[in-house]
Amino acid sequence: QRLATRKHSEQLERARHEYFVQTKYQEEQIEALKAANARLEREHREEIKHYKEENQGLLDGLEADTCEREKIARQVEGEMERTKLCFEEKELLKETLFEKEAEIENLKQQNMELREQVQLTEQL
Asked: CA angle at residue 97 from 93 to 98, to 5 degrees?
């Protein structure tokens, strides 16, 4: 019976030792997992921060590009308005030119008629 008790005691001691080893191993695994989680969380935050910064840079670039495009659009609109005004002024100048040419022709005709009258008067 002593032998059985001693064997039982040794088995209990081995079981306790095995339990201790497994517990220690599990604690180490838990710590390793906690460290891995913390590292992943940190990397994840850094990655998110990186993408946020990158996206903000892209957004800033797009906003600057949009502002530049709006500025150019206003300039083009202004140039189109000036071109329209120049075209209208050109048309008015053409009309004035045609009127003046007609007046000149009329004055030439009157001048010829007056010369003819002067010649007739001189002949009389």
From this structure: 120
